[in-house]
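Run folding on both entries below.
>entry_1
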Amino acid sequence: MSSTTLISAAGFDSIPHDLGAYFTVLHLPEDEPLTVDAYVRASAMFSGGTFHSAVTAMSRPRANIQARRERRAHEPRSGDRAAHIVTRAPHRDSIDGRWAVPMPTLDPQIVTRSARAIARYGPDFSYSHNMSVGRLTTAASLIGGIGVLAGVAQIPPARRALLNIRKPGEGPSPERRNRSWFTVTFIGKGGGERVVTRVSGGDPGYDETAKMLAESALCLVLDDLPDTAGQVTTAEAMGDALLDRLQKASIAFDVIG
């Protein structure tokens, strides 16, 4: 592991999705174009720190775009593998029969970044990231709420008022966390084969994120890993070693179909 390696997405954004897609790919044929569709479900309460981070990120769209452009200009990209983010129209997923709508997070960028870096994803990889809900109206309300929040975050007085709604350090009680859970279901296809996998665990914001961060740190220090440099993903930097650690820490990675 190079001392110049940076891994910035090692919590719920984006380990379940990044390593879940990686786990799915491992059960598909090699050297074939592959597609993976992810469906995220969760029952949990976000923290004040998460809320502040989200509002702050939404308030800086130009700075975020510029930083991304500068980073991409300085980092090499694979010339022999393609990876695409696919935005699917609202649809019923074929596993749970729930409504699925595009989920506007950074996770697809992380997954496709791993796909460009790791040959096992094949010559052409496509990924869609979806939120799974019981009713289409629920999804519309959530997406509309995010849009309103992003708009309000651009106005300094309104942003300050938003940030006063919940303070950093405020979060769900231990009892609420004990009832929390998440699942990410992946449908992978390629080479005439299909596989369905699922990543699942308890409270995503606190309990499982703590496991993910701790196991990532231990993995970087103790395990035999491939040489990497620059800003990389968890799948690229730690792959199988971190996958093994997380499973031993009771975050499940299962083939279900």
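>entry_2
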Amino acid sequence: MKVCFLINQIHEGGAERVVCSLSNYLINNGIDVHLITTLKFTDEYKLDDSVKRYVLSPFLNTKNRLSKNILIKKLIRQYCLNNQIDCICSFMAESNFRAISSCKRITTKTIISIRNDPAHEYQSFLYKILSKRLFPKADAIVFQTDDAKNSFNSKISKLGTIIENPINEAFLTQKIGKGLKRKDFVTSGRLAEQKNHSVLIEAFSLISKKTDANLYIYGDGPLRENLKKKINDLSLNNRVFLMGQCCKLEEELQKYKTFVLSSNYEGMPNSLMEAMALGLDCISTDCPCGGPRFLFDNNKYGRLCIVNDKEKLANLMLLSANENESQDKIDARIRRANEFSIDRIGRKWIGLLNSIVKPEI
């Protein structure tokens, strides 16, 4: 079987890491894997040397957006034909549209993957029209949660199957120290509006005089200066720390007691899954499209609060700071996270591919 993943880049981002993890898993399970990206960077997620890479940017000699999109689809189509690709698996909105458009009237099957909350990823008028028109033509659609699947009409949702994110293996293979954690709060993620670090800082300010715990924020992004100003305005410069990017987050995070996800919306949040894998106490907003709620399974593995409710978030953070958790609870979260190992998730993808790509008789 020849499978080709399609995504804009593998430089950063949760979906991008998943594409690389799946590519590496499938190639090691006897599948011929190809990867098409629009861009290539020097600092990218690790890809097995056996994965055949095709980068489109050297061939895109026009700045006109419409012309460029037509050319991209032509290049994808030609690559699939030349390499006899059995199935193309696309990730993220633009790639999903391009995959379906490129593979019309050729034998290559299409599996598209919805990686974020559809209400946000497909909220523009153009994307709503394109999704209604193109998605029913896919051979299968991968959703991460039932909420995401049910947000589309029946023509689209009936093509859907639920496959969760695989956790980065680096977080599952860590030797977790017992009794060594600081009683501090931590989060990780891009400093962008979606992650709503602002409400997390405001929530922490409400309890900063009631606990010795500090707040550490890992990641970078366009809102860094805004968040620095908020920290300063709330006189929290010695309590809230913007830590920037960290290349060994699996080692750094386990120093802390409580992970807090304050997002406005998510798909299946990698950062929350990774924190669970390290045994951290976890708090999250109950954000669409239901990823944290699914991971916590009726609050068995973490605590949920309403999106943008700083008072409730503050109360949950204080509760965590003052609680001495049993090792049983910590171990339960680690076991829950192991349900999403690359082997388990990879087998689900292989099952889907086998159901779509029928062997010739």
